[in-house]
Amino acid sequence: MSTLRNKVQLIGNLGSNPEIITLESGKKLAKIAIATNETYKNAQGEKVTDTQWHNVVAWNKTAEIIEKYLQKGSEVAIEGKLTSRSYEDKDGNKKYITEVVCNELLMLGNKQ
Q: What total of structural domains would you count in the chain?
């Protein structure tokens, strides 16, 4: 049961092209935003689509695959863990970020 702790699985589409950062050490970091959609009917019987945005980061080989093959609109399935961190912005305000650290990636949809 311990393998179920802090596990995130998402299927969605990239909202923009990946942001790729190459660190001084040579390691690559990919940052992507994935949109997931949930559709339901409201009290009036109208179809409503709720879109949620998820910040995802990937390292090394996964980041290289993202850089090479993914772009805005690409459909992906990811698996990873949820992480949170904080920092101070230039005005000294504390900001909080929650991200999914991707450890598995599956490209879905048509080849582009």
A: 1
